[in-house]
Amino acid sequence: MSLVSTKNLHYKIGDRQILHDINFMIEPNQITTIIGPNGAGKSSLVNIVIGLNTQFDGELQRKQNLTIGYLPQNSKINPLMPITVKRLMSLTRKVADKELTEALEKTGAASLLNLQVKDLSGGETQRVMLARTLLGNPDLLVLDEPTAGVDVTGEVQMYDLISQIRDETGCAILMVSHDLHLVMSKTDQVLCLNKHLCCSGKPESVSKHPEYLALFGGKTESIAVYTHHHDHVHDLDGGCDSCVHNKNSPS
């Protein structure tokens, strides 16, 4: 059974059409990535899926008792607020130390437990926030631009981590991304959005679709499915003291 499905979904603000005739399904253990230009309605669609926006027309069905972990776009903490990672993780509900530690371990951030959030790097902050979405073992993770504030090396590591979390936990993931060349190889289903679904399906088929090519200019470097191979381990912020990189190869 699908975790989420939409049928003829429409959303307007006044006379301005934000989303038009959106139809898709999110299946268990599937990574779905929404791509599209600025103003395409990506965050609006996410808000509808997670229930923050109910002012739409059409059908939205969620699996009964569906649990969702949500990482919003640009989830920043006030740098003047004295709060540790441990306290941040348990702000909205009581969390057992074991559950908290296990969530941080899944994102490689367990060593940050007692640090002040204001002292974390961008990559460390995103790993902590990702760990926070794992609390309660959700059926679906919804990640709106999960690599915001992370450099390109850290982005690759974050997408690898997201894929690994899906494999280990069996949850489904709905992700918004601008990183077309990085995210394609980590995705089962792509939704190419520009107020309507221009095209959707497997990354390989979407990357050859005429509407996709028209939307993103048909540039080879933008549509290549990216694969990344390495024989080293990065730290939380993407750094590495002695790395031997293989060449990144679009395929």
Structural class designation = alpha/beta
Q: CATH homologous superfamily?
A: P-loop containing nucleotide triphosphate hydrolases
The backbone outline, from C-alpha atoms, is globular
Uncertain spans: 219-234, 240-251
Report the order of strands and helices: EEEHEEHHHEHEHEEHHHEE
The CATH class label is: Alpha Beta
Q: Helix coverage percent of residues?
A: 25-40%
How many discrete domains?
A: 1
Give the N-terminus to C-terminus distance in angstroms.
Answer: 33 Å
How much strand?
A: 15-25%
Concise synopsis of the structure shown:
Helices cover 29% and strands 24% of the residues. With 251 residues, the protein is α/β, with parallel strands linked by helices.
